[in-house]
Each structure stands twice: as structure tokens, then as C-alpha cells.
Design brief:
By secondary structure, the chain is of the alpha+beta class. It has two domains: 176 residues, Diaminopimelate Epimerase, Chain A, domain 1, CATH 3.10.310; 168 residues, Diaminopimelate Epimerase, Chain A, domain 1, CATH 3.10.310.10. Helix content is 16%, strand content 39%. It contains five helices and 16 strands. Strands 1-2-3-4-6-7-8-16 form an eight-stranded mixed beta barrel. Strand 13, helix 5 and strand 14 form a beta-alpha-beta unit. It is globular and about 55 Å long.
């Protein structure tokens, strides 16, 4: 039996997502040929992805391409792609932060980097954005990633290797500006009704809308939001409007697929001196069942930018702060260090604790 293209790969859970991890050297250098192979491996385009490794869900229809870096300050380079389920396209315009949790253990398992005891630090450059991040992985004496019985994260049943991800100066990942519209609050008009939002680019590009503008509380289950067709249609109109607004301000085109939309409820309470809020990320296909890491970075940044809808505290130079975000499966928390440069907020870093697990490794055929 002859197959077109055998590909050594692994299926890796990173955070609350799962994807196909491939050493980039396994694939053709031509991007069209490369993507054709990935689509075949995942079984796209097909809503069920029955003829491939995708699971018919945006959180499992992802790919991560990893390779050693020639840059002495970087160990590995990571390109993430959202593989279209019923479309024959792969979206490389934004980074998947959850999937980044798996980069380190994949690099260790495939010999791209050497392990160190008691912990291994992997310096990563994300090729979607050009931004750097670090993964810190506790190691066992036998130089394998340590798996702790207590290392569970909300949104995942079972344990995995502990991964501390630190995103270094994540501001302006997509547009080059933390406030890409130039305003802390923008008003968009759809069908003669105004909707206020704060558009922030940190980790990736988000527009944050108060849930009550849609007669929602912000803590609805994802399935119920997906059944609300008028709401989902309105969100897509708003996504297009946000893209148009930013394109006008930056004087260059921005695609709607580069815009993430989230709804949130006001801060509900303080937990151990940390601010807690409730939020949902509304994707085109399905509402996110947990919460994206890049969304957590972005929403925590919005909290400290003066004048945004999410800003509830005064910021001073060098302030370190935590934000807890409630989602339908539990909570995700961030730790950030911010500063003010020339009167503008800059995020020096944001850290998130995740877990990751290699589910299988082998050969897939396209």
C-alpha cells in the first residue's frame, strides 16, 4: 500500500486544548504543500473530520509546528495554526497560548533540546507574533517531565506535566499597539444600536464587551450561547466592525479572523486580594468551553489600562498583580508585571500555570 506522505508527529494536550505537533522539518518548505498535508492529516474540510485526526471541535483542530532556532537567544520556534473544520484553510494569524504549554515537552521528547534537573527552561519564539515566551518544566531525576498528582487545571480531567508559561512583553502582538484603535473605549453601531467595547492587543487581539449589553449575565454555558443564533450573528457583525475600525486607525487592512470577541461581567468579588471576573470567548464556530491563555493575558492587561471598561484600579510603575477569570469549567489566573513608559501601560510579562501531556507519538499519513 502506498501513501502520499508519512509524517512523524504527536498528539499533545496543551492546557485546555489539544493539537497535532510536528517537527517543521517533516513538512515541505512550500507553504501551500505544507498546509495541504496538514489539512489531510486533520480530515478537513469536514464538520466531523472523520477521515483525519481532528475532533470536529475548534479546541482540538489545531496544529503546532516546532523547530530548533538558529537564534542563540531562542531554543525552539513555534508556529500554531487553527485548522478550519469545514473550510480548507489554516489560520496562522494568532497564537494559541494553551497549545504553547505542549511545546516544551514535545521539544524534550523529540530531542530538540536537552533536559536539565531539577527543572528545564525552554526559550521559545512564537512565529505567529514574533514574541518570546519561556516554559519552565519541573523534571524528575531521570530527566523526564515531572507529573504531579495535584497538577490539575480547570477544564481538563486528569493530570499532566506542570508547565509555567511566561509571555515576555506580549503587548501589540498583532498590531504593534496595546490600544490598536487609539482609544480605551470604542462605540460600534450595528442595526442602529450602539455597543461599547475596549479593544486590546496583548497576547492576541481582543474586543471586550460587557455582557449586559446583550441582555446576558456573562456566566451562561457555552452551549446556550451557541444556540442563541441572533447573538452569534451579532457577534460576527461586531467582529467585522472591529476589524474595520482598527484597519482605519492603522491605515492597513486587518482581517476579521484576527479579532477575538469576549463578553464579561463586572468584577464580582475579591478572592485573597485578587480581582475575579467572569468571561466567555465567542468563537465563530463554538463558544470556548474554557478560556484561552492569550485571552487571559489580554483581559488582565485591559484591567490595568486607564480608561478601559475593565479598568478598576490605579496603576503605578512596576506594579505586579493577579487576575482570576471565571469560565464555564472553572478559573484561570494570571500574574503580570506592568510599568508605565511615556505615559502608556506596558506589560513586562504575564505568567500562567498550565499542564500538558503527550497523548501519542507515531506516524500519520496524508
Amino acid at each position: 500500500m502506498t501513501y502520499y506522505h508519512p509524517v512523524s508527529c504527536a498528539i499533545v494536550r496543551g492546557g485546555t486544548t489539544k493539537g497535532l505537533f510536528i517537527n517543521a522539518q517533516e513538512l515541505p518548505g512550500d507553504k501551500i504543500q505544507r498546509d495541504a498535508i496538514i489539512l489531510t492529516l486533520m480530515g478537513s474540510p469536514d464538520l466531523r473530520q472523520i477521515n483525519g485526526l481532528g475532533g470536529g471541535d475548534p479546541l482540538t483542530s489545531k496544529v503546532a509546528l516546532i523547530k530548533q532556532s538558529e537564534n542563540p537567544d531562542v531554543d525552539v520556534e513555534y508556529l500554531s495554526g487553527e485548522v478550519g473544520i469545514d473550510e480548507g484553510v489554516i489560520n496562522y494569524s494568532t497564537m494559541c497560548g494553551n497549545l504553547a504549554s505542549g511545546v516544551g515537552i514535545f521539544a524534550l521528547a523529540t530531542g530538540l533540546i536537552a533536559a536539565e534537573y531539577p527543572q528545564t527552561k525552554i526559550r521559545i519564539r512564537n512565529m505567529n507574533t514574533g514574541k518570546k515566551l519561556e516554559a519552565l518544566i519541573p523534571m524528575s531525576p531521570d530527566l523526564t517531565p515531572l507529573i504531579k498528582d495535584c497538577m490539575e487545571i480547570d477544564g481538563v480531567k486528569g493530570v499532566g506535566s506542570e508547565i509555567q508559561l511566561t509571555f515576555i512583553e506580549p503587548g501589540g502582538s498583532i498590531t504593534g499597539e496595546i490600544l490598536p484603535s487609539g482609544n480605551p473605549i470604542d462605540t460600534l453601531s450595528i442595526n442602529d444600536k450602539d455597543y461599547c467595547c475596549s479593544i486590546v492587543d496583548c497576547g492576541t487581539l481582543y474586543a471586550f464587551f460587557p455582557a449586559d449589553q446583550f441582555n446576558l449575565t456573562g456566566d451562561e454555558q457555552p452551549e446556550l450561547l451557541d444556540l442563541n443564533e441572533p447573538f452569534k450573528e451579532l457577534v460576527e457583525q461586531l467582529r467585522e466592525a472591529v476589524a474595520g475600525l482598527i484597519s482605519q486607525h492603522l491605515d492597513r487592512p486587518l482581517l476579521a479572523k484576527q479579532i477575538k470577541i469576549a463578553i464579561y461581567a463586572d468584577f464580582t468579588r475579591m478572592v485573597d486580594d485578587h480581582k475575579e471576573l467572569t468571561a466567555r470567548v465567542i468563537n465563530r464556530y463554538k463558544t470556548h468551553k474554557a478560556f484561552p491563555v492569550t485571552g487571559a493575558i489580554c483581559i488582565s492587561t485591559a484591567c490595568v489600562i486607564p480608561g478601559t471598561l475593565l479598568n478598576t484600579c490605579n496603576i503605578s510603575k512596576g506594579i505586579e498583580y493577579n487576575v482570576l477569570i471565571k469560565h464555564s469549567e472553572g478559573v484561570i489566573s494570571t500574574n503580570s508585571l506592568s510599568e508605565i513608559i511615556d505615559g502608556k501601560v506596558n506589560i513586562k510579562y504575564t505568567s500562567v500555570n498550565r499542564s500538558a501531556r503527550i497523548i501519542m507519538a507515531g506516524i500519520a499519513y496524508a
